[in-house]
Amino acid sequence: MALWSLWWAWVCLALLLGIAEILLPGFIFLGFAIGAVVVAVLLGLGLAISLPALLLLFAALSLVTWLLLRRYFALPKGQVKTFKDDIND
C-alpha cells in the first residue's frame, strides 16, 4: 500500500503543518493542515482514489479552508493598526 493512501500519513502531515502554523502564523499553514485532516478522514472512511485526484482534493479543500479562515479571522477592511506612543520616548 502506498504511503499517500494511508490516513495516518495525512494526519502526520496535518500535525507538521499545524506546528508550522504555530511557528509562522498567518492562516496559510492552518488551511493546509485542515485540508490534510479532511483528506485523512475521507481516507479513513474508505475513499480510494488515485494520487492525482487525491492531491487535487487536498488542494481544493486547503484553498476553501484558507479562504474561509481569511474571511472570518482577518482584520476588517480599512482598519490600520496605529500607535500613539513610541517605546523609545
What is the compact description of this entry?
By secondary structure, this protein is mostly helical. The protein has three helices and no strands. It has a domain at 30-73.
Can you walk me through this structure?
The protein is mostly helical and 89 residues long. The protein has a domain at 30-73. It is 64% helix and 0% strand. It contains three helices and no strands. Helix 1 packs antiparallel against helix 2. The chain is elongated, with a radius of gyration of 18 Å. The termini are far apart. The relative contact order is 0.14. The model has no long low-confidence stretch (mean pLDDT 89).
Kindly state the percentage of residues in helix.
Answer: 55-70%
Q: What class, by secondary structure content?
A: mainly alpha
Order of helices and strands: HHH
> Which whole number gives the mean pLDDT?
89
Which percent band covers the strand fraction? under 5%
Number of helical segments?
A: 3
First-to-last CA distance: 64 Å
Which regions have little confidence, pLDDT < 50, spanning 5+ residues?
Answer: none
Beta strand count: 0
**CA-based shape:** elongated
- Largest pleated sheet: none
Q: In angstroms, what is the radius of gyration?
A: 18 Å
